[in-house]
Amino acid sequence: MAAGNHSTVTEFILAGLTEKPELQLPLFLFFLGVYVVTVVGNLGMITLIGLSSHLHTPMYYFLSRLSFIDLCYSTVITPKMLVNFVTEKNIISYPECMTQLYFFAFFVISECHILAVMAYDRYVAICKPLLYNVTMSYQVCSWLVVEVYMMGLIGATAHTGCMLRVVFCKDKIVNHYFCDLFPLLELSCSSTYINEVVLLCFSIFNFLVPTLTILGSYVSIIASILRIRSTEGRSKAFSTCTSHILVVTIFYGSAAFVYLQPSNVISMDQGKVSSVFYTIIVPMLNPLIYSLRNKDVKVALNKIIEKRLSCINEDF
Predict the structure, then answer these.
(1) Residue 6 to residue 90: CA distance in whole angstroms
(2) CA-to-CA distance for 287 and 49, rounded, in angstroms?
(3) Closest CA to 119 of 10, 270, 241, 34
(4) Across the beta sheet with 173-174, what order do the strands follow?
(5) Using an 8 Å Cβ cutoff, are 76 and 16 in contact?
């Protein structure tokens, strides 16, 4: 990722969310709070699933992977964005920018596919319950997670590799709060045709394939739920899916708004606002949604708290 191969630019300046001085401190405090909640929530979810034996199921195994991905790609973006609120110029070197782009692409693409895997898991659990333990064995779950990371690796390598061939020669102000694809391409002094084709193809694949998997899974799930005669049975079956549906809607909605439209259709400011949702807000919301709306997680958390309190009482 050396800067000297093609580009004369050795560093970029991240413009950030806003240039208004009066908003810098409030936004810094707000996003700092969001990041703290994100770290605590996702680390807490990973720890809780690891410590609670009755959460050692495929559903919660995938949920722990989702929390790991959320934690990582929020960490790739948010700390650097916070710097922008407290410094006059948020400078990022060319290698750092390409590294941020690589890991951002890796974790976001991985999130797209892990959400599809979680939908498939719910499909098997509700539509084929007798085959669930065989179909979603530990080996199968492990391979599915490996495939998720492979999709992220391939996509991130393709996007970053294409970006490394782009020549940056004059303007170095990135009109965003992190090194994203569209803002960087706007600074190019060379042709970006290949980059735009690769971006469109990978965006369609990484959104279309998971989206079709999710839609197909939920069509089958809804059909199976409607065949359940008891109202209680329907409610219980559907309750296992509501958290996932909410997460998918927020993530895919905001990401699709940015990446599945031509760059000349939306303004960069609109892209920034949409990016905030899937890069910063969604990683915070995921553990909250799954903990507040999930009975198993609540029970596991209460058991651990009770166990810790009893240990403290015994010491005294």
Answers:
(1) 23
(2) 12
(3) 241
(4) 90-93, 11-14, 173-174
(5) no
If 0-12 CB within 10 Å is exposed, 13-18 middle and 19+ buried, where does residue 292 land? exposed
CA neighbours within 13 Å on the CB side: how many for 73?
Answer: 31
Find out whether 13 and 89 touch, Cβ atoms under 8 Å: yes
Distance (Å, rounded) from C-alpha 236 to C-alpha 250?
23
Residue % of the chain over a pLDDT of 70: 88
State pLDDT tens for residues 35-90. 999 999 999 999 989 888 888 899 999 999 999 999 998 999 999 999 888 887 88
pLDDT tens digits for range 142-186 = 999 999 999 999 999 999 999 998 888 877 888 888 998 888 988
Read off φ and ψ for residue 90, nearest 5 degrees: -95, 90
Which residues, 6+ apart, have CB-to-CB distance to 27 below 8 Å? 17, 18, 85
236 DSSP 8-state letter:
H
Taking the CA atoms of residue 59, residue 60, residue 64 and residue 69 in that order, the dihedral angle to the nearest 10 degrees is 20
How many angstroms separate the CA atoms of 179 and 304, rounded?
40
Which pair of tokens denotes residue 29?
């405090």
* CA-based torsion, 219, 223, 224, 225: positive or negative: positive
